[in-house]
Amino acid sequence: QLYYQVLNFAMIVSSALMIWKGLIVITGSESPIVVVLSGSMEPAFHRGDLLFLTNFHDDPIRAGEIVVFKVEGRDIPIVHRVIKIHEKENGNIKFLTKGDNNEVDDRGLYKEGQNWLEKKDVVGRARGFLPYVGMVTIIMNDYPKFKYALLAVMGAYVLLKRES
Amino acid sequence: LRKNVEDFTGPRERSDLGFVTFDITADILQYDFYSIFDWNVKQLFLYLSAEYSTKNNALNQVVLWDKIMLRGENPRLFLKDMKSKYFFFDDGNGLKGNRNVTLTLSWNVVPNAGILPLVTGSGHVSVPFPDTYETTKSY
């Protein structure tokens, strides 16, 4: 009985992992689902909304698109809109972003001396979104006790569930 | 969609700065925007972008102006004699004498939940920039 429970648990965990890794491959993005962390894109996106990204290599970056990028050296993904692009013939592109709800462009957020973003800074392009769903992640980050409690409950449920 | 523009380039240390004033009367599109707002459309993010090529860069796109149109607001776009909201800097000196600068109106449909499409409006306006710089401008 216990052996079966443990196998069941392992299967659930590995299925979840497979789905996540599969999503990463299909979308081409290292982080295909992100949670909006700030209000800089309101009223379109609010803190806690979930975004679905793709990052296909041949997808051109164009003005007006919503991109998720990371500033070199920082871990936090930022979701803003592309407002300027300058692309060379060979495909090299540099672009500027700005949050819809911000007065100024993002140059203040970039690295010291950096005036433009490049393709390598992009985590993905926002293709779809679901409101509120990401709040769970934010709560788990802000209140780690909640995260442990949730994990404990889930673990207990899986281990104690009896096949009738 | 009718757009009338006046344009001139201003001298800047290293890069061309273009000044564009424009006129957007989109009452032909009034019906269109109205029908875009269905139950799953939360807002439209409208933006006017200038697209052109220069010696330095094969493709340049610069957003000159944007507006958020929420569902429930007046779906008619009527802006007369507008100055661009953002500075129109080129990466270099590619605006001088550039005859092929095109302005297009596009919009991002933001749903209550679901896909985020980017739509480009039909119709665009060409904005030729003169060969010389304006030396005095008060603004």
TrEMBL record, chain A:
Domain Peptidase S24/S26A/S26B/S26C per the UniProt entry, residue ranges: 25-111
Membrane-topology descriptor: Single-pass type II membrane protein
Location relative to the cell: Endoplasmic reticulum membrane
PROSITE patterns for this protein: SPASE_I_1 (PS00501), SPASE_I_3 (PS00761)
Keywords for this protein: Endoplasmic reticulum, Hydrolase, Membrane, Protease, Signal-anchor, Transmembrane, Transmembrane helix
Entry keyword Membrane: yes
Annotated GO biological process: signal peptide processing
UniProt cross-references to SUPFAM superfamilies, sorted A to Z: LexA/Signal peptidase
Reaction(s) catalysed (UniProt annotation): Cleavage of hydrophobic, N-terminal signal or leader sequences from secreted and periplasmic proteins
GO CC annotation terms, alphabetical: signal peptidase complex
Entry's transmembrane regions: 6-26
InterPro entries with a match to the protein in the record: LexA/Signal_pep-like_sf, Pept_S26A_signal_pept_1_CS, Pept_S26A_signal_pept_1_Ser-AS, Peptidase_S24_S26A/B/C, Peptidase_S26, Peptidase_S26B
Pfam families found in the cross-reference section: Peptidase_S24
UniProt key word Endoplasmic reticulum: yes
Taxonomy, superkingdom: Eukaryota
EC number, UniProt record: 3.4.21.89
Any one GO MF annotation of this record: serine-type endopeptidase activity
Subunit comment: Component of the signal peptidase complex paralog C (SPC-C) composed of a catalytic subunit SEC11C and three accessory subunits SPCS1, SPCS2 and SPCS3. Within the complex, interacts with SPCS2 and SPCS3. The complex induces a local thinning of the ER membrane which is used to measure the length of the signal peptide (SP) h-region of protein substrates. This ensures the selectivity of the complex towards h-regions shorter than 18-20 amino acids.
Protein task: Catalytic component of the signal peptidase complex (SPC) which catalyzes the cleavage of N-terminal signal sequences from nascent proteins as they are translocated into the lumen of the endoplasmic reticulum. Specifically cleaves N-terminal signal peptides that contain a hydrophobic alpha-helix (h-region) shorter than 18-20 amino acids.
Family note: Belongs to the peptidase S26B family.
Protein name in the entry: Signal peptidase complex catalytic subunit SEC11
Lineage: Eukaryota, Metazoa, Chordata, Craniata, Vertebrata
From TrEMBL, chain B:
GO cellular component terms listed in the entry, alphabetical order: signal peptidase complex
InterPro entries given in the database record: SPC3
Source organism superkingdom: Eukaryota
GO biological process: protein targeting to ER; signal peptide processing
Bilayer disposition of the protein: Single-pass type II membrane protein
Function: Essential component of the signal peptidase complex (SPC) which catalyzes the cleavage of N-terminal signal sequences from nascent proteins as they are translocated into the lumen of the endoplasmic reticulum. Essential for the SPC catalytic activity, possibly by stabilizing and positioning the active center of the complex close to the lumenal surface.
PANTHER family linked to this entry: MICROSOMAL SIGNAL PEPTIDASE 23 KD SUBUNIT SPC22/23 (PTHR12804), SIGNAL PEPTIDASE COMPLEX SUBUNIT 3 (PTHR12804:SF0)
Protein name, UniProt field: Signal peptidase complex subunit 3
Gene encoding the protein: Spc22
